[in-house]
Hints:
The complex is a heterodimer of chains A (234) and B (602). Chain A is an alpha+beta fold. Chain A has eight helices and seven strands; from the N terminus they run E-E-H-E-E-E-E-E-H-H-H-H-H-H-H. Helix content of chain A is 29%, strand content 15%. A five-stranded mixed beta sheet of chain A has the order 2-1-5-3-4, with helices on one face. A two-stranded antiparallel ribbon of chain A has the order 6-7. The mean pLDDT of chain A is 97. With 602 residues, chain B is an alpha/beta fold. Chain B is built from 16 helices and 24 strands. In chain B, strand 4 and strand 5 form a beta hairpin. In chain B, 63% of the residues are buried. Classes of the chains: A alpha+beta (234), B alpha/beta (602). Chains A and B meet through helix 3 of A and helix 3, helix 4 and helix 10 of B.
Amino acid sequence: MTKRTFQIYRYDPDTDAKPYMQTIEIELDGHERMLLDALVKLKAQDPTLSFRRSCREGVCGSDAMNINGKNGLACLTNMNTLKGVVVLKPLPGLPVIRDLIVDMTQFFKQYNSIKPYLISETIAPERERLQSPEEREELNGLYECILCASCSTSCPSFWWNPDKFVGPAGLLQAYRFIADSRDDATAERLDNLEDPYRLFRCHTIMNCVDVCPKGLNPTKAIGKIKEMMVLRTI
Amino acid sequence: MTYTKANITKRKFDVVIIGAGGSGMRAALELSRAGLNVASLSKVFPTRSHTVAAQGGVSASLGNMSEDNWHYHFYDTIKGSDWLGDQDAIEFMCREAPKVVYELEHFGMPFDRNPDGTIYQRPFGGHTANYGEKPVQRACAAADRTGHAMLHTLYQQNVKAKTNFFVEWMALDLIRDADGDVVGVTALEMETGDLHILQAKTVLLATGGAGRIFGASTNAFINTGDGLGMAARSGIALQDMEFWQFHPTGVAGAGVLLTEGCRGEGAILRNADGERFMERYAPTLKDLAPRDFVSRCMDQEIKEGRGCGPNKDYIVLDMTHLGVETIAKRLPSVLEIGHNFANVDITKEPIPVVPTIHYQMGGIPTNINGQVISQKDGINNAVVNGLYAVGECACVSVHGANRLGTNSLLDLLVFGKAAGRHIVEFNNRNKEHKPLPADAADKTLERLNQLESSTEGTYSQDIAADIRAAMQLHAGVFRTQVSMDEGVQKIAEIRSRVGSITLKDKSKVFNTARIEALEVDNLIEVAQATMVSAAARRECRGAHTVYDYEHPADHAEFPLGRNDKEWMKHTLWYSEGNRLAYKPVNLKPLTVDSVPPKVRTF
C-alpha cells in the first residue's frame, strides 16, 4: 500500500461561491495502473468528486483533463509516471461545470463549423467509391482523432479566441476532409477558413502536438491547409 | 430537495431515441433525413459511445478478396449462433450487409483499401467460404479502429442532417399508458439535475450492452444495461439473457480488448508449452473458430495446467511472426494497447490474454423491423406499440447463443436503418400523439426521491461490486448447475439490498454519484435475468456451457451437450414475479431454405 497525495480542482456550483484546490490523500494498493483507476478509488472515498469517463482504454476521449500542468487522458496516464503530488485540474480555458467537468460547447461548435462530413458532388456508385491505398494513407494521422479536446484547450490562441479561431482539433478534421480523395468540397472548405482568425491564429506554438494522446500532429495539418490557401491565391 | 410533478418539464417529439451509439445514430440519421422531429438522447457525448471501441471490422459478403456470397454468411451466422438465431432475421441481415456497408463508405467511412481501390477485408472467426470449408475474408476494416471510424462517420452524417442531440441526458423509465402502449420516457438532464418528460409517438431503445454486471469485461463504465432495466421495469421480458460472450483475447489483468482481427491477420494462441493448441480442438478453423468455442478451449488449457505465467492462469497471443510493417498498418491500436496495458511490445513478445466478458447476445425481444414484441394472448410476437429496440440491447435474434465477430457492427447498421425506415412509415400514418397518463412520472419520482431521502445505507458502487463478483463467479465461461443455483440465490440477496442504497451527494449539478446509483437499478435487472435464465437452461448451447450437461461431439442424443428436442427455444425472463417463459426459434428463413441443426464442430 502506498499513500498518494492529490490536489484536485473542486467546484460545486450548488454550494461553492468559487472553485478551490482540495488536497486529498488516498491509499493505493498497486492495482491502480492508470490515473483513472486512482480517480475511481478517490470517488469511492468521496462520492462528490465528479469527472467524465467511459472506455478506460483511451479511445472515447471522455476523461481528458489537466494532469500536473499538462493535458492528457486519465485512462492512459500511468501512475508510475506521476511522481509526488498529483495536481488535477479541468481542461484549461473552457467554462467549468463542476470539478473536472468542462462545458465542451465551444469546442464542438468549432468542429461543426468546418462541415465535418464527406461532401461529394457525384452520385454514389452501386458499390464502394474506389480509393487507392496511397490515397487512403493520406487520412492516417487525421481520422484517428477522438475529440478529447486536449489539443485545443492547450492552445493559447484557442484560449484567447475560442469563438473565432477553429482550434487544432477542428482544423485537423478540416484537413481530414480536404485530404480525402472522395471529397469534392476543397474550394468550399478553404473559403470557409478564409478570414484573419479561423485558420491563421495558429502561430505554430505546437502545444497541441505535445499533448495529443493519440500522437497526432495538428500543426502539420494546419501547415498543409495554409500552404493550400497561399497557393490558390497565386 | 425533492423531485415533484410540478417541476418536471414536458417536451413533445415524433421520436425519442435513447442512445447515440452505432445503431442509435444510424436510426437517427434515417429519421432526421426524413424530416421527423427527433430527440436523440445520450448519457455521454455521441462519439464517446462504446461502438467507438470496436476494432476488427464489419462483415459483408462483398467478395473483394476472394469469392463470397451472402448465403455463406447466412450459414456461418446460423452455425455460429448454435441454432438459436432466428433464420428469417439472419437472412435479412446477411442479405442487406453489402448494401449497408457500401452506404457507410459513401457516408465517408475511411475503410482500408486494396490495390484495386476496393474495401480491404480480413479473415475473422467463424466466417467461411462454401459452408464451412475454409476461412473467408469478409470483415471490412479500417485498421483496427473500425468502430471508431464508423461511429465518427455516423456522427458526422448526423451533424450534416442536423439531428437534435440531447447530450448527457440519462433516460430513466418508459411511460406506458393503460393500453400498454409506450408514449414517452422520463429523463434526467445530467448538467442541471432536472427531471424531464419526453412525450413521443415512438421510443427507440439503443442503449447497448450491460457488460458492467461482470467483474472483468471489455466494456466501458457506461455499459450498464439502461434500456434493459427500463424495459424490465415496465413489464417487458428480456430474451436469452443467459448467453454472454467471453471474448478470447482480453488483456489479462486489464480487460482491454485485443481484436479478433489479430488472429485474422495471423496471430496464434499458445499455451505454456508454446503449442498452437487450437489445432487440436478445431482442425479446420483453428484460431479462427467462433469466440465461445475458443474461450472454452483456452479455459480448458488453463484448467489442465498448461496456462502461462507464474500462476499458470493466462494464455498468450503470439504476433511476433506478423512483422513490424503488418502490425503498424493493420493493428496499430493493438500495438498501443500492448504498450499501455501490458508493458509488452507485441512485435517482440507474446501478450497475456484471458477470456473476458464482451457481448450480450440477449436483450429486448424485437422483430425484423426493430419493433419490441411480447407474448400476449397466446401470440409470441405481439407488437408493443410505440417501442422499438436496436443494437446490442435488442434480441432479434440474429446472434442466438453466440455472435460471430464483425456481425455486431453489421447488426447496428442493418437494424438501425430498418427500424428508422419503419418508424418513418409509422409516423406518416399516425399524426397524433397519444395522451400521457396521469401517473407518467410516478415510478421515476419514486426512484429519485428514495435516493434523495436516504440518510444511511450502502454506497451504490459497493452493491455494484457485489453484483460483479457474483456474476464473475457464477456465470463464467464454464458453468455448473450447483454454481448457477448458488448465483441465483446470491443475486436475489443482493437485489434485496438495492433498496438500501444511500446517496451521500445530493447536489444537482452534474451529479455523477446519482447517475451511478440509478444505474444499479439497471444492473440488478440484467444480473437477475442472466442468472435465473442460465440456471434454468439444462443444456450446452453456444456461449452457455454447463459442465453437468457436456457430452462429446459424437453423442447420439446430445452432441456437444446440445439438447435440440427440449431446448431449441428462446428464454424470456420477466422482472415482475422473477419468472421465465419460452418461445420457439424461427427456423424458417424469409426466402431461402432453412439450415437444419447439426453438430457444431470446426
